[in-house]
Design brief:
Mean pLDDT: 89
Number of helices: 7
CATH superfamily of the largest domain: P-loop containing nucleotide triphosphate hydrolases
Radius of gyration: 17 Å
Order of helices and strands: EEEHEHHHEHEHEEH
Number of domains: 2
CATH topology of the largest domain: Rossmann fold
Shape: globular
Strand order of the largest sheet: 4-5-6-3-7-8
Distance between the termini: 37 Å
CATH architecture of the largest domain: 3-Layer(aba) Sandwich
Number of strands: 8
CATH class of the largest domain: Alpha Beta
Low-confidence stretches: 220-225
Length: 231
Amino acid sequence: MIGVRDFSTQLGGREVLCSVTFVPGGGAVTALCGPNGAGKSTLLRALAGLLPGGQPMPREVAYLPQGALCAWGLTVRQVAELGRIPHGDRNDAAVQRALAACGVTALAERRVDRISGGQARRAMLARVLAAEPKVLLLDEPVADLDPAACHDVMRLLRDFAGGGGTVVVVLHALELAATYADRLVVLQAGRVVADGAPADVLPAAAASFGMVLQSGAVPLLRPLVPPLGAS
């Protein structure tokens, strides 16, 4: 449904992506990793059709930019309802499912500017899920979340892909990429330097951050708490 082939772009006269080819797979979670300024967010925006010359983003694609927050004093429910705008309806059932999936049902009537930053981040994720997309493009959706919440969100994305959806997520946490992604794409200086199964690509991902993995070591962190909604 989406993808770029031999794609290059400049921002402010500086080449940000150079001859990048990337087509995400359906039913899979693809993590985009690499240091700051590598071009990850720009690639995500290209996939969303938000760069000059790009195609408008279809309703089946939902995009959550980095650090997305609501500037108005809406309730969490109202924020989630914004996801229904492309469909021209409110679809309470879809909104309720999104709130539940993100663990913010109990906050539904709270103002989004009067809850914690991590809770507000979940509310913004509920907005994109309420759109009932087939493709999720998410730029650092677990930033500012505590470790347990990070795993909750990544399990949610894993389940979305398990249902046939496509997920492309920008991550800096290699342990999350190793645990939940099917594919790891590493960018550095605007180029794809590695692309494959996380177990194969982790050394290149670590190297892009100027780090070295110890022999045989895989940066995995196992969640110690049950998923949201579990008894």
